[in-house]
Amino acid sequence: MIRKYESKKVVFDELYGEDIFEQIYDIHLKVMNQELYEQLPKIRAEKKKADEEKREYERKCHEEQQKQWDNFYKQYTSGSYSIGSNSNYTDKEKEYLKKFYKVLATKFHPDVIEDNKPMQFLNKLKETWGI
Questions:
Q1: Which residues share a beta bridge with 31?
Q2: What φ, ψ does residue 41 adopt, rounded to 5°?
Q3: Which of 56, 68, 92, 110 fits 116 for a cystine, CB–CB 3.0-4.6 Å?
């Protein structure tokens, strides 16, 4: 009888919130408080609305954290060397970068290692280097 009571209480608490079950039912699961029992649909609607608001708040917090991380990452990865023609690399440094690229492209080409992720990353570096 106690296990049945406890299992019903767990399900009830998830739907309506805690501390209401004991106010309505006795140990035999008989309704003791008819007035509160009749308010259950309203209580459920309020609980559902509160749960939705909580989920929305958590989603917005997560979204905001992701934006902050993205902004930080963009600032962190941009560095002093910019993309394209505004690059701070000298012509000699660009020659070195081209040589580095050719060596790495030969080593990490998808036909050689059967994985295109390293080559995609290398091409992203090439674009960043402005070569």
A1: 25
A2: -60, -40
A3: 110
